[in-house]
Specification:
Number of strands: 5
Radius of gyration: 16 Å
InterPro entries: 2Fe-2S-bd, 2Fe-2S-bd_dom_sf, 2Fe-2S_ferredoxin-like_sf, 2Fe-2S_ferredoxin-type, Beta-grasp_dom_sf, Diverse_Oxidoreductases
Bound molecules: FE2/S2 (inorganic) cluster
Oligomer: single chain
Mean pLDDT: 95
Organism: Litorivita pollutaquae
GO molecular function: 2 iron, 2 sulfur cluster binding; metal ion binding; oxidoreductase activity
Helix content: 25-40%
Shape: elongated
Keywords: 2Fe-2S, Iron, Iron-sulfur, Metal-binding, Oxidoreductase
CATH topology of the largest domain: Ubiquitin-like (UB roll)
Protein name: Carbon monoxide dehydrogenase
Amino acid sequence: MSQVTMTVNGKTATGDVEGRTLLVHFLRDELQLTGTHVGCDTSQCGACVVHVDGKAVKSCTMLAAEADGASVETIEAQAADDGTLNVVQQAFQDHHGLQCGFCTPGMVMSATALLKENPKPTEAEIRHYLEGNICRCTGYHNIVKSIMAASGQDVDSIAAEVAAQ
Ligand code: FES
Ligand code: FES
């Protein structure tokens, strides 16, 4: 076991971890931040995406020890203290970007990272960025629409695309 210390959602978090402990398990099991989900064991689903030093990372692909000293943000820190959703969360709610919600924390964390890098992504850029996030429910259409809306862009063109299908 070794001790790790990191900043998680603005607070210092310390714990003893095994060398093989994944960041996602440290967050969920040690810190009880269970909003970060585990949807696969093959690093494919993206339900576990968090931000590490500002970058979107699949937390099942990183050892907790590798995050020692890092600043980690999870879905729990995305809404304001009074419960007000951030712009991406609100857009997912407004545009029905979720059904069962299992993938949603990872989707929101990926989308938030995308919009930091690229504040006005095209639909194609959103779809490309989300290639590492799998949703079993929505068919992605409303997720893409939500992210377009969160970036302040018109979503009518996307609606038209569906109407034409
Ligand atoms: S749990 Fe990390 S990619 Fe699926
Ligand atoms: S909303 Fe159910 S997996 Fe995406």
